[in-house]
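R.M. (postdoc): so does anyone remember the format we settled on? I'll just put the structure tokens first.
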């Protein structure tokens, strides 16, 4: 069985090839950025390349080094900002409400995926733009991370089903986003719950992690 910390020559070769591909895309993006009107697109491509490189790094070296929650949230926020920007949608802003220093056990690319999927759903629920709030609390027994939006919330009929694979209320959507989030959170010994906000409209996703999963 392949173990995260073991270097695999095949994986190293794949990582090398993929990094060459990223190099080519990054160079093309740089050329594109010569034209002023293409600069936002070039910057978005460059950030995607950086994300790809981080994923490859994560593959080649699935180290369990802790990753700062603030870094993960910023990367996921960049991703959603790029996407709404490219689609010409109003901006969605991500508000961080937590103290610095909260770290999650790696790989960071998995946590990036968790927040990207949650933010993407939140952005889709707020087509006119709005605020996503990330609030985190650390207690002796564990940690809670809440992601809340200002959309319409989730109706009671579908609430029990949203983490099922292939469940979607959107046309031509794969319905895998929340299933992937749930799978990753569970793999880290945690749990995720969905609810609606009590003081205003909006959905609220709460990730609960045991203290051992957040080492710093
Ligand atoms: N922030 C949210 N606000 C309202 N509904 C949501 C939100 N996040 C998820 N949902 C609901 O849960 C369903 C499943 O989400 P997901 O697994 O990400 O699949 P998809 O985005 O492909 O539809 C969505 O189709 C939507 O109905
Ligand atoms: Mg989704």
């Amino acid at each position: 069985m392949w173990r995260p910390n073991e270097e695999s020559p095949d994986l190293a070769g794949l990582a090398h090839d993929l990094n060459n591909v990223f190099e080519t895309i990054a160079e093309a993006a740089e050329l594109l950025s010569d034209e002023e009107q293409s600069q936002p697109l070039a910057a978005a491509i460059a950030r995607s390349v950086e994300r790809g490189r981080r994923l490859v790094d994560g593959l080649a070296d699935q180290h369990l080094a802790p990753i700062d929650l603030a870094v993960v949230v910023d990367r996921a926020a960049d991703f959603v900002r790029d996407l709404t920007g490219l689609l010409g949608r109003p901006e969605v802003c991500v508000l961080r409400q937590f103290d610095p220093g909260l770290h999650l056990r790696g790989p960071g690319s998995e946590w990036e995926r968790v927040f990207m999927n949650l933010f993407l759903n939140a952005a889709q629920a707020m087509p006119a733009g709005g605020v996503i709030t990330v609030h985190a609390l650390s207690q002796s027994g564990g940690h809670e991370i809440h992601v809340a939006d200002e959309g319409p919330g989730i109706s009671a009929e579908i609430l029990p089903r949203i983490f099922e694979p292939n469940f979607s209320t959107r046309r031509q959507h794969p319905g895998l986003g929340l299933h992937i989030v749930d799978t990753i959170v569970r793999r880290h010994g945690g749990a995720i719950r969905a609810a609606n906000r009590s003081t205003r409209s909006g959905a609220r996703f709460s990730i609960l992690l045991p203290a051992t999963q957040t080492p710093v």
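R.M.: ...and that's the designed sequence above, right after the tokens. Also worth knowing: The two ends are 30 Å apart (CA to CA). Residues 1-7 have pLDDT under 50 and may be disordered.
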